[in-house]
Amino acid sequence: MTDADRQLELIRQNAEVFLGEDELKKRIAAGKKLRVKLGVDPTRPDLTFGHMVVFNKLRQFQDLGHTAVLVIGDFTTRIGDPSGRSTARPILSEEEINENAKTYLDQAFKILDKEKTEVRHNSEWFGKWSMIDTLRLARQMTVARMLERDDFAKRYASKTPISIVEFLYPLLQGRDSVELQSDIEIGGTDQLFNNLVGRQLQKDAGLPEQAVLTMPLLVGLDGARKMSKSYDNYIALNESAKEMFGKIMSISDETMWTYYALLLCKTPAEITAMKAQHPMEMKKQLATALTAKFHGEAAGKYEREQFENVFSKGKIRDDIPEFRWGELVAAGAESAALTDILAATKLFPSKKEIRRLVEQGAVKMNDEKISDPALKISASDAAKTLVIQAGKRTFLKVVA
Amino acid sequence: MTDADRQLELIRQNAEVFLGEDELKKRIAAGKKLRVKLGVDPTRPDLTFGHMVVFNKLRQFQDLGHTAVLVIGDFTTRIGDPSGRSTARPILSEEEINENAKTYLDQAFKILDKEKTEVRHNSEWFGKWSMIDTLRLARQMTVARMLERDDFAKRYASKTPISIVEFLYPLLQGRDSVELQSDIEIGGTDQLFNNLVGRQLQKDAGLPEQAVLTMPLLVGLDGARKMSKSYDNYIALNESAKEMFGKIMSISDETMWTYYALLLCKTPAEITAMKAQHPMEMKKQLATALTAKFHGEAAGKYEREQFENVFSKGKIRDDIPEFRWGELVAAGAESAALTDILAATKLFPSKKEIRRLVEQGAVKMNDEKISDPALKISASDAAKTLVIQAGKRTFLKVVA
Known about the structure:
Two copies of one chain form a homodimer. By secondary structure, chain A is an alpha/beta fold.
């Protein structure tokens, strides 16, 4: 097995589509340092674990000695990529785009090796383009070919408007590959069409064509739909250690193995071995490893202990917020309604929400279920320290 | 009947579609000097009688006191307008475009009043546009709306490629109306869709919308298809007086009345009166009037006389080419074959063509049909002057 074979085996891992493999192998065998393109659109200020799948793949290339070329689509974002969506995205201001791009990079470098990453913005070239340049590019693609793209075909069939500018987007993204002379472009499954356009435009320009490698879309916390902010089934890369750990612990066993493969890059053989162990233990290890990746080893270990205190040993977390009676109740008052006390902590969105939790039997005081939203608490109760749990994960203490 | 009513009656004459008539009438009644837009694409160096139909309409507006705004689509021509065609036109160089534009204008001013014409080139504005400006324009139209256009619908259905740039063309043409703040745009029937886009873009820009008036496409010499260079059934505006007159005389009676209406702006009442006269006389009058328009009164009269000499009175034209025996035959030769003599005149494409004409019985010498291609002519015959007719319109003399 040659070095090129070994590299390709790693590159192929978890890939959904991999085109141009033979040509890529030749370049690796010839000792070429590959230029590996990944495009990101700074349409939102933060990234999710869904983005981690492609960043992990890019990191893998870096570890093999190749160059990661991270393209910030600051120019293309001014149009809005409709891939996999049923409507055109709104136009962002340049300030929003730049702000988002900065946050993106901060988060991306938690996974990528910053030293081995070439960061480029496509406004570098498109910012200088004239109308004629744009029209020349538009000549390079047909309407029919564009309407073959899955999401466009669906929108056209269902009479959902497609703006003509959306037909230009894949061309712009493809043109990036010409400018960057990428050897391979990686992306999510929904980027396959766009990445193939890059291959075509390179060929039209007389350049060697890039390989195209797509990664599966990560399933969300619900185990059903792809991870997306729109479905509220996501973990953001900048989420707190506590939230991150808790959310990972909430996924199903089946989803857990997908996360091991796509987020921790475990091989099928490693996963088979893990399946012999207790699923709860494996889920804790997954949550610990991922939390450690973004918040450090100590944070991973700490969150595991806290989680075990609350859920496995019936204890409460060490770090739950503590309130003094005097902070929550009007000066001199001898008693107050539980709902008013909870509202005063500002841990809940509204009094209505607190009443709803009580009525659902989701509120406990010193481990006893409370069912009366009007229940009065006296200052003397508070003197003995009250531990209140509302919902699954909100705890607080009230002391004298 | 108000002045506005009278103007509208003239404007409506020969129109196929006229949208926004009420609004236009208000502007005329308010005394506004209308800005009347006509766009021409300098894709070819010369114009035909087909172009005359819309130029006549534009001239009519000038005669009513309005401003003709003639837009030379020098920028849009760099893309190629696919209207009514089944393929994208080739891209022209800037030199070719400018050269064509110059010739266009020379010919257009044979019909338009130069003093009342505002000539604009759309490179004035589009030449300054950036990529972002272009993308913003592209946002203003949907793919579905564009695919409703007849020719696009047909090409899409028949799987004939449509380049994405062709979807941008109507937007560029429409944008011209925003830049020029036109009150009405005129064009051929095949321009209806594009002119409506101009109306929409003006509305989107918060401007008063232009009226849209389309004129029928002129039928060609064959009386069947629209006049077009591609069908070789056209009369060019810069054709010689002789060719122009001859071609008009070749049309059918039915086509003649259409030409009276669209090329000489005769009203239905006038045409009804003419139908009472002899069609051959009316056709000569049409040919004389149109030839006079482009070559002067004298030329019209002269061509009519020549035509009558040849076709009505069996005489020959006064101005047929004359060759001396010594020019056509090797020095000292006592005789030569007729085909060699005709070939030496260089009036025929090939000897083969000459033989074909003789074999078809289309060649006469001094009014006697010749049937032997090998027939020898002696110098003594030439001394008596030979008049040779080959085909319907080629005459020549051979003298000693």
